[in-house]
Amino acid sequence: MISADTRIRKNSAPELVCEKMEEFISQGIWKMDEKVPSEAELAEMFGVNRFTVRMALQKLNTLGILETHMGDGTYVRSFNLEKHLQNIYHFYMTPELLEDVSEFRRIIEIECARLAIRRRTAEDLEELKQCCLTFEDRITSYVNAKKDSLKRSLLFEQFNNDDIAFHTQLCKMSHNDLLIYAYSTAKEAIRQHMSASAHKRVMDLSPGDEIISVSSHWKIYHAIAEKDFRTCKKILTEMFDNDAQKI
């Protein structure tokens, strides 16, 4: 329940109203996808005027914390940091940032692999296996597709996403929320880096050629399944080194 003493004892305080509303959300008083009180109710609750409340609501809408539906009301939004970063990545993506990707992945993914070997469950391994199967199927279809075709272009984007899915799953298997969060914040930079290096890896492959990326993914899977960190680290390091050379 919301306590009775919620009134803001300062004049024209949109920032303080924002802070109080964020507090209600973070504490679970207002839950995800739940409708919040109306402007009039909020003004009464905080002891401020409706203009102050409207400014606070606009800020929280801009931040993606709330979402206002015209004629219906305002709701707590299920905030998706990954999607938010995907929408704004072009504002912060720079050539210098891409140069840092290999170092970042080396630090994060190798540690995630070490933890995954200790903590992975049967379900984790099955999900990683499915990532390998999907990636292999899609990149093989790409290599077999007619060059310069629309289908090949679409398959390239798809197998790049499948590659991201594999490495995301590897991080999830660490069962360390902060490492998973760190990887998510860098995912768009990693995606751009992977796309550039993948193009150089596969552009000259012909049907029937060995696809080194596929064998590397399977080696990582088997190393984690067999709890062989040394091999897993070696394969990941080679992968990052090769990608860095192709950018």
Strand order of the largest sheet: 1-2
| Structural Rg | 24 Å
Major sheet details: 2 strands, antiparallel
Instruction: Please report the number of helical segments.
Output: 12
Shape descriptor reads: elongated
Order of helices and strands: HHHEEHHHHHHHHH
Count of DSSP strands:
2
Distance from N terminus to C terminus (CA atoms, Å) equals 55 Å
Mean pLDDT: 87
Low-confidence stretches: none
Share of helical residues: 55-70%
Query: What percentage of the residues does DSSP assign to strands (E)?
Result: under 5%
Structural class by SSE content: mainly alpha
Account of the protein in words:
- By secondary structure, the chain is mainly alpha-helical.
- It has helices at residues 14-26, 39-46, 50-62, 81-92, 95-99, 101-119, 122-144, 150-172, 177-185, 187-202, 212-225, 229-245, and strands at 66-69, 73-76.
- Strands 1-2 form a two-stranded antiparallel ribbon.
- A hairpin with a 3-residue loop joins β1 (66-69) and β2.
How would you briefly describe this protein structure?
By secondary structure, this protein is mainly α.
Strands, helices and their partners?
Blueprint: H1 14-26, H2 39-46, H3 50-62, E1 66-69, E2 73-76, H4 81-92, H5 95-99, H6 101-119, H7 122-144, H8 150-172, H9 177-185, H10 187-202, H11 212-225, H12 229-245
Antiparallel strand pairs: 1-2
Helix pairs in contact: 1-3, 2-3, 6-8, 6-12, 7-8, 7-11, 8-10, 10-12, 11-12
